[in-house]
Design goal:
The protein is α/β, with parallel strands linked by helices. It has twelve helices and eleven strands. Strands 2-1-3-4-8-7-11-10-9 form a nine-stranded mixed sheet, sandwiched between helices. The chain has a two-stranded antiparallel sheet with strand order 5-6. The N and C termini lie far apart (55 Å). The structure holds thiamine diphosphate and iron/sulfur cluster. Iron/sulfur cluster is lined by residues 32-33, 36, 38, 67, 139, 143-144, 217-220.
Length: 350
Amino acid sequence: MSLAKPKVHHPSLAQNAIGLTRRDYEGVITTLCAGCGHDSITAAIIQAFWDLDIQPHMVAKMSGIGCSSKTPAYFLREAHGFNSVHGRMPAVASGASAANSELTMIGVSGDGDSLSIGLGQLCHAMRRNLNLLYVLENNGVYGLTKGQFSASADPGSMSKKGEANTMAAIDSCRLALTLGATFVARSFSGDKDQLVPILKAGLKHRGFAFVDVISPCVTFNDHEGSTKSYAYTRENQIEVVQTDFVLPRGAIHADYRPGEDRLVKMHDGTYIKLRKVADDYDPSDRDKAYAYIRARQEEGEVVTGLLYVSEESQEMHQQLGTVPGALTKVPYEKLCPGNDALQKLQARFR
Ligand SMILES: Cc1ncc(C[n+]2csc(CCOP(=O)(O)OP(=O)(O)O)c2C)c(N)n1
Ligand code: SF4
Protein backbone atom coordinates (compact mmCIF):
# COMPACT_ATOMS: atom_id res chain seq x y z
CA MET A 1 0.00 0.00 0.00
CA SER A 2 1.26 3.50 -0.69
CA LEU A 3 0.23 6.66 1.12
CA ALA A 4 0.02 9.98 -0.71
CA LYS A 5 1.64 12.99 0.95
CA PRO A 6 -0.57 16.04 1.53
CA LYS A 7 -0.32 18.52 -1.35
CA VAL A 8 -0.88 21.61 0.80
CA HIS A 9 2.41 23.37 1.64
CA HIS A 10 3.44 26.15 3.90
CA PRO A 11 3.37 29.42 1.88
CA SER A 12 6.88 30.35 3.04
CA LEU A 13 8.54 27.33 1.34
CA ALA A 14 11.26 28.37 -1.13
CA GLN A 15 10.30 28.22 -4.81
CA ASN A 16 12.51 27.51 -7.80
CA ALA A 17 12.54 29.51 -11.06
CA ILE A 18 9.31 27.84 -12.27
CA GLY A 19 7.49 28.56 -9.01
CA LEU A 20 7.60 25.05 -7.53
CA THR A 21 8.66 24.05 -4.02
CA ARG A 22 10.74 20.97 -3.25
CA ARG A 23 7.53 19.33 -2.00
CA ASP A 24 6.16 19.50 -5.55
CA TYR A 25 8.93 17.07 -6.54
CA GLU A 26 8.00 14.44 -3.96
CA GLY A 27 6.04 11.23 -4.52
CA VAL A 28 4.08 8.97 -2.19
CA ILE A 29 5.35 8.15 1.31
CA THR A 30 8.15 5.57 1.21
CA THR A 31 7.47 1.97 2.18
CA LEU A 32 11.17 1.02 2.29
CA CYS A 33 12.89 0.05 5.60
CA ALA A 34 13.72 3.05 7.82
CA GLY A 35 17.35 3.97 7.13
CA CYS A 36 17.53 2.35 3.66
CA GLY A 37 20.13 4.10 1.52
CA HIS A 38 17.66 4.16 -1.38
CA ASP A 39 15.55 6.77 0.46
CA SER A 40 18.57 9.08 0.77
CA ILE A 41 19.09 8.75 -2.99
CA THR A 42 15.43 9.67 -3.53
CA ALA A 43 16.01 12.86 -1.50
CA ALA A 44 19.04 13.69 -3.68
CA ILE A 45 17.02 13.10 -6.88
CA ILE A 46 14.26 15.43 -5.61
CA GLN A 47 16.87 18.10 -4.86
CA ALA A 48 18.53 17.73 -8.28
CA PHE A 49 15.27 18.10 -10.26
CA TRP A 50 14.17 21.04 -8.11
CA ASP A 51 17.52 22.80 -8.49
CA LEU A 52 17.39 22.39 -12.28
CA ASP A 53 13.83 23.84 -12.51
CA ILE A 54 12.63 20.82 -14.51
CA GLN A 55 8.85 20.59 -15.09
CA PRO A 56 7.81 17.30 -13.41
CA HIS A 57 5.28 16.46 -16.15
CA MET A 58 8.13 16.59 -18.71
CA VAL A 59 9.95 13.72 -16.98
CA ALA A 60 9.72 9.96 -17.54
CA LYS A 61 10.92 7.82 -14.62
CA MET A 62 11.65 4.23 -15.57
CA SER A 63 12.48 1.20 -13.43
CA GLY A 64 12.54 -2.58 -13.28
CA ILE A 65 11.83 -4.68 -10.15
CA GLY A 66 13.45 -4.50 -6.70
CA CYS A 67 13.36 -2.22 -3.64
CA SER A 68 15.43 0.19 -5.74
CA SER A 69 13.00 -0.03 -8.62
CA LYS A 70 10.15 0.98 -6.27
CA THR A 71 11.83 4.31 -5.55
CA PRO A 72 10.45 6.27 -8.55
CA ALA A 73 7.09 6.16 -6.73
CA TYR A 74 8.68 8.31 -4.02
CA PHE A 75 9.70 11.26 -6.22
CA LEU A 76 8.10 13.45 -8.91
CA ARG A 77 4.48 12.34 -8.51
CA GLU A 78 3.43 14.40 -11.57
CA ALA A 79 5.94 12.67 -13.88
CA HIS A 80 5.27 9.82 -16.29
CA GLY A 81 6.44 6.47 -14.94
CA PHE A 82 6.88 2.87 -15.99
CA ASN A 83 7.81 0.03 -13.63
CA SER A 84 8.90 -2.62 -16.15
CA VAL A 85 9.78 -6.33 -15.91
CA HIS A 86 12.85 -7.26 -13.80
CA GLY A 87 16.00 -6.21 -15.68
CA ARG A 88 14.15 -4.98 -18.75
CA MET A 89 13.96 -1.27 -17.98
CA PRO A 90 16.57 -0.15 -20.58
CA ALA A 91 14.52 -1.60 -23.48
CA VAL A 92 11.35 0.12 -22.28
CA ALA A 93 13.29 3.35 -21.70
CA SER A 94 14.71 3.12 -25.25
CA GLY A 95 11.19 2.84 -26.65
CA ALA A 96 9.91 5.75 -24.56
CA SER A 97 12.85 7.91 -25.60
CA ALA A 98 12.40 6.98 -29.28
CA ALA A 99 8.75 8.05 -29.08
CA ASN A 100 9.32 11.27 -27.15
CA SER A 101 12.81 12.74 -27.07
CA GLU A 102 11.49 15.88 -25.34
CA LEU A 103 11.12 14.10 -22.01
CA THR A 104 13.90 14.16 -19.43
CA MET A 105 14.45 10.50 -18.65
CA ILE A 106 15.64 8.95 -15.40
CA GLY A 107 16.01 5.18 -14.86
CA VAL A 108 16.43 3.71 -11.37
CA SER A 109 17.65 0.17 -10.91
CA GLY A 110 19.35 -2.19 -8.43
CA ASP A 111 22.55 -4.18 -8.72
CA GLY A 112 20.46 -7.36 -9.12
CA ASP A 113 18.26 -5.72 -11.73
CA SER A 114 21.21 -4.22 -13.63
CA LEU A 115 24.14 -6.61 -13.22
CA SER A 116 22.41 -10.01 -13.24
CA ILE A 117 19.11 -10.45 -15.07
CA GLY A 118 19.37 -7.10 -16.88
CA LEU A 119 23.08 -7.03 -17.69
CA GLY A 120 22.62 -7.42 -21.46
CA GLN A 121 20.00 -4.67 -21.48
CA LEU A 122 22.28 -2.30 -19.55
CA CYS A 123 25.17 -2.95 -21.96
CA HIS A 124 23.05 -2.16 -25.02
CA ALA A 125 21.60 1.01 -23.50
CA MET A 126 25.20 2.20 -22.97
CA ARG A 127 26.13 1.16 -26.50
CA ARG A 128 23.15 3.07 -27.93
CA ASN A 129 24.07 6.07 -25.77
CA LEU A 130 20.44 6.43 -24.79
CA ASN A 131 19.71 9.90 -23.42
CA LEU A 132 18.99 8.67 -19.89
CA LEU A 133 20.24 9.29 -16.36
CA TYR A 134 20.69 5.72 -15.09
CA VAL A 135 20.94 5.47 -11.30
CA LEU A 136 22.15 2.10 -10.01
CA GLU A 137 21.30 1.81 -6.30
CA ASN A 138 24.05 -0.63 -5.35
CA ASN A 139 23.67 -2.56 -2.06
CA GLY A 140 25.37 -5.85 -3.04
CA VAL A 141 22.22 -7.87 -2.33
CA TYR A 142 18.80 -8.63 -3.71
CA GLY A 143 16.94 -6.59 -1.08
CA LEU A 144 13.38 -7.25 -2.23
CA THR A 145 13.84 -11.05 -2.32
CA LYS A 146 15.53 -11.06 1.12
CA GLY A 147 19.25 -10.79 0.76
CA GLN A 148 20.74 -13.21 -1.81
CA PHE A 149 24.18 -12.13 -3.09
CA SER A 150 24.06 -10.00 -6.19
CA ALA A 151 26.74 -9.84 -8.87
CA SER A 152 28.27 -6.77 -7.19
CA ALA A 153 28.86 -8.53 -3.82
CA ASP A 154 32.58 -8.69 -3.06
CA PRO A 155 34.17 -12.13 -2.63
CA GLY A 156 34.36 -12.90 1.09
CA SER A 157 31.38 -10.73 2.03
CA MET A 158 28.95 -12.56 4.33
CA SER A 159 25.27 -13.20 3.72
CA LYS A 160 22.64 -12.71 6.40
CA LYS A 161 22.92 -16.46 7.13
CA GLY A 162 26.69 -16.21 7.58
CA GLU A 163 27.78 -17.79 4.27
CA ALA A 164 30.75 -16.22 2.49
CA ASN A 165 30.46 -15.16 -1.14
CA THR A 166 33.02 -17.03 -3.25
CA MET A 167 32.38 -15.40 -6.61
CA ALA A 168 34.12 -12.45 -8.25
CA ALA A 169 32.22 -9.15 -8.24
CA ILE A 170 31.26 -7.17 -11.34
CA ASP A 171 32.34 -3.55 -10.92
CA SER A 172 29.66 -1.56 -12.72
CA CYS A 173 31.83 1.53 -13.34
CA ARG A 174 34.69 -0.47 -14.83
CA LEU A 175 32.13 -2.27 -16.99
CA ALA A 176 30.65 1.05 -18.12
CA LEU A 177 34.08 2.43 -18.99
CA THR A 178 34.93 -0.70 -20.99
CA LEU A 179 31.67 -0.52 -22.95
CA GLY A 180 32.21 3.10 -23.95
CA ALA A 181 29.67 4.80 -21.66
CA THR A 182 29.90 8.57 -22.13
CA PHE A 183 29.30 9.57 -18.47
CA VAL A 184 30.40 7.40 -15.54
CA ALA A 185 30.17 8.36 -11.87
CA ARG A 186 30.05 6.73 -8.46
CA SER A 187 28.78 8.13 -5.19
CA PHE A 188 27.47 7.17 -1.77
CA SER A 189 23.84 7.49 -0.66
CA GLY A 190 24.89 9.35 2.51
CA ASP A 191 26.97 11.96 0.67
CA LYS A 192 24.29 14.32 -0.66
CA ASP A 193 26.84 17.11 -1.20
CA GLN A 194 28.60 14.93 -3.75
CA LEU A 195 25.58 13.07 -5.15
CA VAL A 196 23.30 16.01 -6.01
CA PRO A 197 25.79 17.77 -8.36
CA ILE A 198 26.57 14.42 -10.03
CA LEU A 199 22.86 13.79 -10.62
CA LYS A 200 22.43 17.31 -12.01
CA ALA A 201 25.38 16.83 -14.38
CA GLY A 202 23.93 13.46 -15.40
CA LEU A 203 20.54 15.00 -16.16
CA LYS A 204 22.20 17.63 -18.34
CA HIS A 205 24.46 15.14 -20.15
CA ARG A 206 23.28 14.38 -23.69
CA GLY A 207 23.59 10.60 -23.72
CA PHE A 208 23.78 7.77 -21.22
CA ALA A 209 24.78 9.06 -17.78
CA PHE A 210 25.63 6.12 -15.56
CA VAL A 211 25.69 6.80 -11.82
CA ASP A 212 26.45 3.92 -9.44
CA VAL A 213 25.46 4.82 -5.88
CA ILE A 214 26.61 2.65 -2.95
CA SER A 215 23.38 2.29 -0.93
CA PRO A 216 23.51 0.27 2.31
CA CYS A 217 20.64 -2.18 2.88
CA VAL A 218 19.60 -1.90 6.55
CA THR A 219 17.82 -5.21 6.67
CA PHE A 220 20.35 -7.54 5.10
CA ASN A 221 23.41 -5.77 6.44
CA ASP A 222 22.42 -6.20 10.04
CA HIS A 223 24.60 -7.67 12.77
CA GLU A 224 24.86 -11.48 13.08
CA GLY A 225 25.02 -11.65 16.87
CA SER A 226 22.48 -8.96 17.61
CA THR A 227 19.41 -10.02 19.53
CA LYS A 228 17.53 -7.29 17.73
CA SER A 229 18.60 -8.35 14.26
CA TYR A 230 16.09 -9.34 11.66
CA ALA A 231 17.38 -12.95 11.68
CA TYR A 232 17.26 -13.29 15.47
CA THR A 233 13.78 -11.83 15.69
CA ARG A 234 12.52 -14.17 13.06
CA GLU A 235 14.03 -17.27 14.65
CA ASN A 236 12.96 -16.46 18.20
CA GLN A 237 9.54 -14.96 17.82
CA ILE A 238 6.38 -16.85 18.63
CA GLU A 239 4.28 -16.20 15.60
CA VAL A 240 0.78 -14.97 16.29
CA VAL A 241 0.37 -13.24 12.94
CA GLN A 242 2.73 -13.59 10.00
CA THR A 243 4.85 -10.43 10.06
CA ASP A 244 8.50 -9.47 9.66
CA PHE A 245 10.23 -7.07 12.02
CA VAL A 246 12.87 -4.72 10.74
CA LEU A 247 14.67 -2.58 13.30
CA PRO A 248 14.57 1.06 12.20
CA ARG A 249 18.06 2.52 11.73
CA GLY A 250 19.36 5.98 10.95
CA ALA A 251 20.55 6.64 7.39
CA ILE A 252 24.35 6.60 7.10
CA HIS A 253 26.02 9.94 6.27
CA ALA A 254 29.50 10.50 4.87
CA ASP A 255 30.87 14.01 4.60
CA TYR A 256 34.46 14.34 3.32
CA ARG A 257 36.46 16.54 1.03
CA PRO A 258 37.83 15.97 -2.54
CA GLY A 259 41.08 13.98 -2.49
CA GLU A 260 40.33 12.48 0.94
CA ASP A 261 39.47 8.96 1.93
CA ARG A 262 36.98 8.07 4.63
CA LEU A 263 36.07 4.87 6.48
CA VAL A 264 32.29 4.55 6.67
CA LYS A 265 30.67 2.10 9.09
CA MET A 266 27.86 -0.01 7.62
CA HIS A 267 24.81 -1.21 9.55
CA ASP A 268 26.42 -4.63 10.16
CA GLY A 269 29.54 -3.14 11.76
CA THR A 270 31.77 -3.64 8.69
CA TYR A 271 33.53 -0.70 7.03
CA ILE A 272 33.75 0.59 3.48
CA LYS A 273 36.61 2.89 2.51
CA LEU A 274 35.51 5.65 0.16
CA ARG A 275 37.98 7.85 -1.72
CA LYS A 276 36.72 11.05 -3.32
CA VAL A 277 38.55 12.01 -6.50
CA ALA A 278 40.75 15.08 -6.03
CA ASP A 279 39.91 18.49 -7.55
CA ASP A 280 42.65 18.01 -10.16
CA TYR A 281 41.41 14.54 -11.23
CA ASP A 282 41.03 14.41 -15.04
CA PRO A 283 37.66 12.81 -15.95
CA SER A 284 38.29 13.06 -19.71
CA ASP A 285 40.71 10.11 -19.98
CA ARG A 286 38.86 6.77 -20.14
CA ASP A 287 41.93 4.53 -19.78
CA LYS A 288 43.36 6.49 -16.86
CA ALA A 289 39.97 6.46 -15.11
CA TYR A 290 39.82 2.69 -15.46
CA ALA A 291 43.38 2.20 -14.20
CA TYR A 292 42.77 4.55 -11.25
CA ILE A 293 39.59 2.77 -10.12
CA ARG A 294 41.31 -0.63 -10.38
CA ALA A 295 44.45 0.50 -8.53
CA ARG A 296 42.39 1.99 -5.68
CA GLN A 297 40.24 -1.16 -5.50
CA GLU A 298 43.41 -3.20 -4.99
CA GLU A 299 44.08 -0.97 -1.96
CA GLY A 300 40.56 -1.72 -0.67
CA GLU A 301 39.15 1.69 -1.62
CA VAL A 302 35.98 2.62 -3.48
CA VAL A 303 36.53 5.69 -5.66
CA THR A 304 33.68 8.23 -5.75
CA GLY A 305 33.05 11.28 -7.92
CA LEU A 306 32.61 11.99 -11.62
CA LEU A 307 34.97 9.35 -13.04
CA TYR A 308 34.62 9.88 -16.77
CA VAL A 309 32.73 12.16 -19.16
CA SER A 310 32.98 12.43 -22.93
CA GLU A 311 32.39 15.77 -24.59
CA GLU A 312 32.02 13.96 -27.91
CA SER A 313 28.83 12.21 -26.81
CA GLN A 314 26.40 11.56 -29.70
CA GLU A 315 23.17 10.35 -28.13
CA MET A 316 20.84 7.81 -29.77
CA HIS A 317 18.67 10.31 -31.65
CA GLN A 318 21.68 12.12 -33.07
CA GLN A 319 23.19 8.83 -34.24
CA LEU A 320 19.95 7.67 -35.86
CA GLY A 321 19.01 11.05 -37.37
CA THR A 322 15.43 10.83 -36.07
CA VAL A 323 12.87 13.61 -36.47
CA PRO A 324 13.32 16.30 -33.81
CA GLY A 325 10.79 16.48 -30.97
CA ALA A 326 8.09 14.11 -29.83
CA LEU A 327 6.40 11.69 -32.24
CA THR A 328 3.11 12.66 -30.55
CA LYS A 329 3.47 16.06 -32.25
CA VAL A 330 4.14 14.68 -35.74
CA PRO A 331 0.94 14.87 -37.85
CA TYR A 332 -0.84 11.57 -38.42
CA GLU A 333 -0.40 11.76 -42.24
CA LYS A 334 3.36 11.89 -41.76
CA LEU A 335 3.46 9.11 -39.20
CA CYS A 336 1.24 6.91 -41.37
CA PRO A 337 1.76 7.83 -45.06
CA GLY A 338 -0.86 5.30 -46.25
CA ASN A 339 -1.08 2.04 -48.17
CA ASP A 340 0.44 3.38 -51.43
CA ALA A 341 3.63 4.44 -49.65
CA LEU A 342 3.80 1.04 -47.89
CA GLN A 343 3.38 -0.84 -51.20
CA LYS A 344 6.20 1.21 -52.79
CA LEU A 345 8.46 0.54 -49.81
CA GLN A 346 7.76 -3.20 -49.92
CA ALA A 347 8.40 -3.30 -53.67
CA ARG A 348 12.00 -2.24 -52.99
CA PHE A 349 12.57 -5.45 -51.03
CA ARG A 350 11.09 -7.86 -53.59
C1 LIG B 1 11.91 -12.43 -14.04
C2 LIG B 1 12.03 -12.27 -12.53
N1 LIG B 1 12.94 -13.02 -11.87
C3 LIG B 1 13.08 -12.88 -10.53
C4 LIG B 1 12.29 -11.99 -9.85
C5 LIG B 1 12.44 -11.87 -8.34
N2 LIG B 1 13.11 -10.65 -7.95
C6 LIG B 1 12.42 -9.55 -7.60
S1 LIG B 1 13.39 -8.28 -7.14
C7 LIG B 1 14.79 -9.23 -7.37
C8 LIG B 1 16.16 -8.69 -7.07
C9 LIG B 1 16.20 -7.26 -6.71
O1 LIG B 1 17.50 -6.91 -6.35
P1 LIG B 1 18.15 -5.52 -6.74
O2 LIG B 1 17.91 -5.24 -8.17
O3 LIG B 1 19.56 -5.56 -6.31
O4 LIG B 1 17.31 -4.48 -5.93
P2 LIG B 1 17.18 -4.21 -4.36
O5 LIG B 1 15.90 -4.91 -3.97
O6 LIG B 1 18.38 -4.75 -3.66
O7 LIG B 1 17.07 -2.73 -4.28
C10 LIG B 1 14.47 -10.49 -7.82
C11 LIG B 1 15.43 -11.56 -8.11
C12 LIG B 1 11.36 -11.22 -10.59
N3 LIG B 1 10.59 -10.30 -10.01
N4 LIG B 1 11.26 -11.38 -11.92
S1 SF4 C 1 15.31 -4.70 2.24
FE1 SF4 C 1 17.19 -3.48 2.11
S2 SF4 C 1 17.07 -2.52 0.06
FE2 SF4 C 1 15.01 -3.22 0.60
S3 SF4 C 1 14.00 -1.46 1.56
FE3 SF4 C 1 14.89 -2.71 3.21
S4 SF4 C 1 16.90 -1.78 3.56
FE4 SF4 C 1 16.22 -1.06 1.56
